[in-house]
Amino acid sequence: MAEAADFQGTSPSPARRRSRRTAALLAGAPLLASLVQLPAAGSAHAGAPASPQAAPGGGTVAVAVDSLSPAAPTDGDTVTVSGTVTNTGKRTVTDAQVDLRVGSRLGTRSRIDTVAKNSDDLGGSLGAQVGDKYAEKFPKLTPGVAEHFNISVPVDELDLGEDGVYEFAVSLSGQTSAQPWQRVLGVQRTFLPWQPDEAGTRTKTTYLWPLVSTAHMTAETDSNEQQTRVFRNEDLAKEISPGGRLNQMVALGTGLDVTWVVDPDLLASVDAMARGYQVRGADGTTVAGTHQAVAKQWLADLQKAVADKEVVALPFADPDLASLAHNGTDVTGSLSRLKDATDVVTNTVETILHVKPVTDFAWPVEGAVDPSIVKVATSAGADKVIARSDSLEETSGLSYTPSAARPIGGGTTAVVADARLSTAFRGDLTDASASTLAVQRFLAQSLALGLQTGKQRSVVVAPQRMPTGSQARAMAEALTALQDGTWSESQELTAAAAAEPDPKATTKVPPASAYPSSLRRQELPRSAFEQIARTQGKLDKFRVVLSDESRVVTPFGRSMDREMSASWRGRSAQAASFRTGVERYLDSLAGQVRLIDKSETKLSGRSATIPVTVQNNLVQGVDRLVLRLTSTNPTRLKIDGSDYQEQPVAVSGGHSQSVKFTTSANANGQATVVAQLYTEDGQKYGEAVTFDVKVTEITATVMLVIGGGALLLVLAGFRMYTQRKRAAARGGEEDGPGAAEDAADGPENPDEPEDRLREHGAGSRAEDPEQPSDPAPDTPVESTDPSGTGERVDR
Questions:
Q1: Residue 260, H or E segment
Q2: Quick one: which of 136, 391, 592, 776 could link to 149 by a disulfide (CB 3.0–4.6 Å)?
Q3: Can the peptide bond before residue 49 be classed as cis, meaning omega within 30 degrees of 0?
Q4: How far apart are the first and last CA of the chain?
Q5: Proportion of the chain above pLDDT 70, given as a percent
Q6: How far is the CA of 717 from the CAs of 299, 566, 758, in angstroms?
Q7: Which PROSITE patterns does the record match to this protein (predicted)?
Q8: How many helices (H) does the chain have, and how many strands (E)?
């Protein structure tokens, strides 16, 4: 970004200018007097330097500035600097002295960057010593031993000039046995922002305070009425416990004028913990979580912190907009997933925090944008995109940093965060010295920005999404100093977005080719979005058969939102594992509704009924399912007179239901039957069950036996008839016509024909003999295998 050559409109007050001129005259009098004695003085100290010189190359003493207070002093303040000096060389340093040095006024923001980059370089300018009165001496510095120093100096003694940013350094001078003369052996440069009087025009500064974390909840929930959530581990509990990262973010942010930026997934996760939760162990078992009270306290503290502050809510789980734009838009359903993640935001945040959130901001990773990212970011309803100035760079040669708001077309506003301020607290700031340097650099850049022009501007600071605890503490320290300072005032993000844009500021979104390759390498691949789409398809098929689909749709829908989270950047293996875990768990739930396997079934007649059992191990009932039984050989076996038959299925939770199908056999032998569940729209559900049906209808041998038995009956009846006729004829010859007629009515001895029948093996008379033409009775199917042991009842 272009810089101003000098600060504008920053002249000190007349009273101060007069006092400084008087001080300069008084200070100059001894100097004039000394000029007369200069030759003599020079001869008295021939060969010895008048002041310590910098050692060639790198220093052998490490200087750490652990504290500088106040960070932005004003008239009447006393500046206190504390830290350590450590001899990193191999020789003892003697006659060591820690000095404070004030360098030149830094006129541009780029010069501040240069000084910060070379903060411990002995080759650069060191600035003038404040004086021996404000120094600390050490007789010796032993190698490897750190010595603490603490120096206080009235700000008036620093001889600061007009308003601006001054280079401020702490140096260590001394000598060694190898080089027995005083020289500078170590230095640490930092910055001293100086604007003691109120600025005529204050910069309006918006600082985003992000509450974002990684994915902690799984798709799994308990089968109870409350659907107790199952967490991947206890990492979130550590973050919100006292001393944890998120606990510090809430505690530190409570007293700051910031705009809170929250991920609704984080709120939902902590709220689930507060209601009682389970934790998935490494062995796959779940145990009860133990940080319910911690979760309740964190939520209570957060509710108080945001009660009267602006809250900007990101889409649920903070989806990676750049990954979606570059790799997911061609995958069906990806943009719909983003829309769903946006639609649940308001209800989630209002229910938990009791504040109405702002939901029309999108925040791509690192504020890097291109046309496709802007298009995706606004597809779900956002009309403001938080970009960063190192992405949306100035091209018009402006000598100052313009306001954040930029209209970029289509009714969309880019809110461009300042890159220098936004990245001021990166890296490891656990060391006090690193934290102090970051704070001073941030304040220096803020003041330098404000002094570029007398025109009021709106500046936005968008730090990293998940600051560490040490980074958060440094941010809070800098913001406290800024809010107590004289050149800046706080402003909410919505106000910054609505501010009048600078007509000279760039509004052109950079092309896709300008997107940083380092960020592109961390994006979710296309395969990730394809897997999400596949899981969504399975969920759509599963939900239609459920009596209460919300118990499944909600946890799985939110889990798929987490699969698109920007927090997976740099963790591709963990991201893939999470996606696979969600899909497998959905498969296991859908598999709880299934057909019970059947062994071979035998039919011993022309027709029978075949039962097929549907098992539901879910806790809720299923309906709107259709069971189809199909014969693969309908010429041998028909199902209800056709190739197949369908019947509706409804099964209560934790139960099984047998569905009976009528079959008819046309021929003997074996036929294969396929049972398959379908949804109402004709989609297959679950695995098919295939089994064999052995038809054992009437065989040829049986027919011969039956035919032979019938023939014997006919012959026996004919013989009885002829025997009776003969007997009647004989009786008529012997007894006359009358007797013949009596004989014709029946034998005189009724047992005689029966005795003769027994002699021929005919057996007794059948009362209702079965006729071969009668249909065979329905015979039930042989007992099939019982339903398998019920698997775990789950949702």
A1: strand 259-262
A2: 136
A3: no
A4: 56
A5: 82
A6: 101, 97, 13
A7: TONB_DEPENDENT_REC_1
A8: 22, 31
Q: Residue 786: count other Cβ atoms within 10 Å of its Cβ.
A: 9
Amino acid letter, 193: P
Instruction: Give the DSSP letter string of 374-397.
Output: HHHHHHTT--EEEEETTTS---S-
Phi-psi region of 351 (alpha: psi -120 to 50; beta: other; left: phi over 0): alpha
How many degrees, rounded to 5, is the angle at CA 380 between CA 566 and CA 564?
25
Q: How far is CA 667 from CA 242, 246, 427, 662, 781, in A?
A: 79, 75, 82, 16, 17
State residue 701's pLDDT score: 52
Q: Which of 564, 572, 463, 570 is nearest to 518 (CA)?
A: 570
d(CA 291, CA 237): 6
The bridge status of strand 203-211 relative to strand 458-461 is parallel
Upstream peptide bond of 357 is cis (omega within 30 degrees of 0): no
How many Cβ atoms from other residues are within 10 Å of residue 395's Cβ?
Answer: 11
Give the list of residues 6+ apart from residue 613 with CB closer than 8 angstroms, or none: 595, 596, 656, 657, 658, 659, 784, 787
- Tokens (6 digits) for 780: 């039930």
- Extract the tokens encoding 580: 């696979």
pTM: 0.80
Give dist(CA 9, CA 21) in Å, integer.
Answer: 20
Residue with tokens 């069971």: 627
Q: What is the pLDDT of residues 576-593, one digit of tens each?
A: 999 999 999 999 999 999
Please choose, from the candidates 336, 384, 362, 366, the residue with its C-alpha nearest in 3D space to the C-alpha of residue 426. 366
pLDDT band at 85 (very low <50, low <70, confident <90, very high): very high
Q: State the sign of the Cα–Cα–Cα–Cα dihedral 386, 392, 396, 398.
A: positive
d(CA 89, CA 178): 12
For residue 369, the model assigns a pLDDT of 97
- Most distant pair of Cα atoms in the chain: their distance: 194
State the Cα–Cα distance between residues 118 and 111, nearest whole angstrom: 11
Q: Measuring CA to CA, which residue among 558, 595, 607, 632 is closest to residue 227?
A: 558
- Classify strands 203-211 and 183-194 as parallel, antiparallel or unpaired: unpaired
Report the candidate in 464, 466, 576 with the shortest Cα–Cα distance to residue 524. Answer: 576
Q: How far apart are CA 366 and CA 368, in angstroms?
A: 5
| Other beta carbons within 10 Å of 587 | 12
Evaluate if residue 12 carries a pLDDT over 70: no
Rounded Cα gap, residues 134 and 164, in angstroms: 23
* Among candidate residues 697, 537, 733, 491, the one with its CA nearest the CA of residue 605: 697
Read off the pLDDT of residues 648-667 as tens digits, 9 standing for 90 and up.
999 999 999 999 999 988 87
The SS3 of residue 38 is helix
